[in-house]
Amino acid sequence: MKPFFSQSPSDAAKELQVDVSCGLTKEEAEKRIEKYGHNRLEGGKEKSLIQMILEQLKDFLVIILMIAAVISIFLGEALEGVIILAIVVLNTFLGVYQENKASNALKALKEMASPHAKVLRGGQIIEVPSSDVVPGDVAILEAGDYVPADLRLIESVNLKIDEAALTGESVPVEKDASAVLAEDASLGDRINCGYMGTVITYGRGRGIITETGMQTQMGNIAGMLNDTPDESTPLQKKLDSLGKVLGIVCLAICVVIFLLGLLHGMELFDIFMTSVSLAVAAIPEGLTVVVTVVLAMGMQKMVKCNAIIKRLSAVETLGSTTVICSDKTGTLTQNKMTIQKMYDASGHYNVSGTGYSPEGEITDEAGSTPASYPDRLIEGALLCNDATYDPDKQTIVGDPTEAAMVVLAYKHGMKKAEWEAKYPRVQEIPFDSDRKLMSTFHKIGDSITMYTKGAPDELLRRCTRIEENGTVNPLTDAKREEILGVNQDMAQSALRVIGVAYRLMDKADPSPESENDLIFVGLVGMIDPPREEAKEAIDVCKTAGIQVKMITGDHKITASAIGAQLGIETDRTVEGREINEMTDEQLRECVKTTNVFAR
């Protein structure tokens, strides 16, 4: 059987036995829930309170303490026995309390993420809990929605999906339902599919659910995590070893004292009592509780840094770390596209500030106030734009690329709502993956101005003129080559480049033919910038002798550039296809010297 991304939409529908025009019936959906189960990710088996307590009591040193307590009581030292038992109880309580608290926090986080999905059933679009979607359901996808499960797209209208949570790709992926891909297409290149947990940032579409729950790509990852065995930490191993040594020492003390007593002619009962008393005295009763308290303090410190640790013993493991393998998007970078460079006929510009903060300024290449600002370029990027931005909360709704342009305009004192009121949009030509362009028509005075933005090479192909210092001149071949060179330089610096152009018209004509005879304005280059705290953390790791390796679903050029900015030193960047061709031994050698791994 071919994978669904290698099948046409009609073949996928046939295999899943669904009529895409009306979806599944209610009865069929219920049957499929019984067959496939609910669309949920399974965590590891949840521990009961009894299991948590027993786990705290299974340490060898704790077992010795309990034996010592019983012997102390038996020897008539009831107070000492009770104190030892109190230490064991306190140690157990602290461990169970901290782990239970972390478990409840994780449960609360999961409950917060319980979205609903819109599906077509019996010819009607209804909303159901995401956990109730089944293979064969036709899901309705709109901007702002989460993809409820893995699906094969059957319809896509300017659809873009943010797959950063799954692949690490920081730029939303343009989807095409009509595409039929090769069977060896990588996850990040499957433009005709959507995956559980990813977010629709633009456009709309429909898709047939193909896998749910643990059969999804997210489920595969969850399964691998669940299958990872719990290993003892270095401290646990050392304490276990210490407990065994103490056990042997105590037994040896008993034997030696017993033999000495016999040699001196003492009574057997007296010899036994003396031997056992000395053995109990040799046990460090306070050691386990001291270790638990120290780990609990470390756990609380991590909580203050917004890190939840499920197992108390894991705190100590962090101190034994030698290699950290990290994702890029959202971990080492901000997952907030930010414009850093601009270009128009007047020259090059730098833009300061990061993320969605409206703080920042535009300077020339020398870092000084420019003689003139690229107002037309910023205006075009702002008006030909569907993203919304809240500067107070520093949040966006819509495509991150467009949001970066809105933030740029705010830095220049241009607010979207004011500009849209001043130059209202009267028509538009939506973005699509074939044209790689988007155009909007705005009423400016008595005429119409059409702003167009998109892929620089496609935009330039439609431009015949260029605006230079407020004057429109013919676009010469030499100038065209210069612009393409700037585009290439920005791209090699891992910037995503968008071109902006415009055209003056008598009336709005939303036909593709309008996107010709354009006047080129300029380019903007943006990137998902590294986190400042990530740079500092990597420097601290280096000082501590810890290697940091970055593993990302981004392209090789982007991965290399971000790695260099973060200070992750590497002689080469290895791609996924290269790893697939390596033997296990070659891979072992590769990971010793390579610190950046790309798609």
UniProtKB/TrEMBL annotation:
TM region(s), chain numbering: 81-97, 245-265, 271-296
InterPro entries reported for this sequence: ATPase_P-typ_cation-transptr_N, ATPase_P-typ_cyto_dom_N, ATPase_P-typ_P_site, ATPase_P-typ_TM_dom_sf, ATPase_P-typ_transduc_dom_A_sf, ATPase_P-type_domA, HAD-like_sf, HAD_sf
Q: Which residues form the Cation-transporting P-type ATPase N-terminal domain?
A: 3-77
* Membrane topology type: Multi-pass membrane protein
The record's Gene Ontology cellular component field reads: plasma membrane
Q: Name one GO molecular function term.
A: metal ion binding
Enzyme Commission number, as recorded = 7.2.2.10
Subcellular location(s) of the protein? Cell membrane
Q: Which SUPFAM superfamilies match?
A: Calcium ATPase, transduction domain A, Calcium ATPase, transmembrane domain M, HAD-like, Metal cation-transporting ATPase, ATP-binding domain N
Keyword annotations for this protein, in alphabetical order, are: ATP-binding, Calcium, Calcium transport, Cell membrane, Ion transport, Membrane, Metal-binding, Nucleotide-binding, Phosphoprotein, Translocase, Transmembrane, Transmembrane helix, Transport
Instruction: Please give the chief subcellular localization of this protein.
Output: membrane
The catalytic activity, as recorded, is: Ca(2+)(in) + ATP + H2O = Ca(2+)(out) + ADP + phosphate + H(+)
Which PANTHER family does the record match to this protein?
A: CALCIUM-TRANSPORTING ATPASE
> What protein name applies here?
P-type Ca(2+) transporter
